[in-house]
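Record Zinc finger/thioredoxin putative domain-containing protein, 250 aa.
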Amino acid sequence: MTLVTRCPVCHAVFRLTGIQLHSCNGDVRCGQCRQVFNGFVALIVVPETCIQPAARSAESAPDYLESGNVAVVPVAESSFPADHFGVQLSTRKTSRWWLIPNALLLLLLLGQFVHAYRTEIFIAFPAFQPALDSYCDLMQCEIDLPRHLHLLSLESSDLRVSSPAEPDVVALSAIIRNHAPFPQALPALLLTLTDSDEKPLASRIFTAEDYLDSVTDQSVLGGDSEIQVQCFLNTSSLDAVGYKLELIYP
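=>
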């Protein structure tokens, strides 16, 4: 086995002997750039077969000895590649351990992204709804449906006495349309009764639970679709002659 060190300034590689290192506590002088450095710091042990004979040896260069510092003779740079150094191999092995915490951190960030933008993901990728539902069941969260009121409209509405037998009970019917390509939450209806001067007499808000049929199992308004709704109101104490109807999200 041969002792080899590398100059930290010019990076020339040198062959040493144990006597040269111990004679000056490891201080050596580079035969190329004349820099003094500690040979123990970058000391490497390599097989003899990796070392090509140098043009000189330490014994053939006595004129390099100055002030107790040993000049060392360079070995051919091509005698052993840089990736043979044990320090670099150790770094490569150690770096692989960082893959595990990095992968866990990536999964954590992905989970936070899905949780924060679950509604947007539901809108952009409706096919992911089963997976999002399972995620929310696990995390005890809900997918808040979009509420873009400007993409909803009242296609028609009507307010009339529901039955001659009950003249004080009126039936409100309306058709709500969703112009968005994605599902939205069902809006509420704001009904305002007015007099002959169109002054408001009374108002009431009808939620989806109020205007949906008890047998209708619909909790969302599908994309590019419409729904017909109906609800009833007692107006016995009011002398209303007109009404206004608006869509709102309470």
